[in-house]
């Protein structure tokens, strides 16, 4: 299980940044009595199980709230469960561009005693930009480019393609994923210095390079119970590749297969008529 400190920091970051996950050009903060009429607010409760740290073979649980806003009369846009929290600068029928952010948990000795001697990695936030394009009315392409702050200071990118279909109250989606990281990112999470190798005694020194870090897929299913309530369940799978997969941390203590599952409950309400 992830440490309480890491869980608290994750919840704080996601809750605070969720206020910018909007679908309009003007920023709005969550204060229903101060919002102008004609907005729809969606409050979400999220529960996820994900690898304790990049390359780990066990899962930790995290729960956090999030918010999104849209003008009344506009259709709620599809959002994949592994999208970063987004703010659109440009938002038309097929194309979106804007700012994005993600949280990356840390790696701590208390997570796994086998990590003895390896450096602690603090949590990180990853601000960046995203671009999204609907190739057809059921096929979405999305790319995110982000830079780490605090726990790591590398560049990372995520590319995804989603097939999205609606069947009555159900909406299902699935599609492939590709992740990349530069050498600063891979050396932070998958590298081992000679000093760390000597202290740990079970892993050799390793200096990875940047490149493709994983390939995988994400699938989700949503059900719209009413105009106000909906739930979404999802599963993600990443297979570490390249220098990330060859890391002695992954080979000795972790797994190349990275699985995540989650559930989101959403409640929407209007701020006025």
TrEMBL record:
Residues 1-24 form the signal peptide. It comes from the Bacteria. One of its GO terms (cellular component) is cell outer membrane. This is Outer membrane scaffolding protein for murein synthesis, MipA/OmpV family. Keywords: Cell outer membrane, Membrane, Signal. Belongs to the MipA/OmpV family. InterPro entries: MipA.
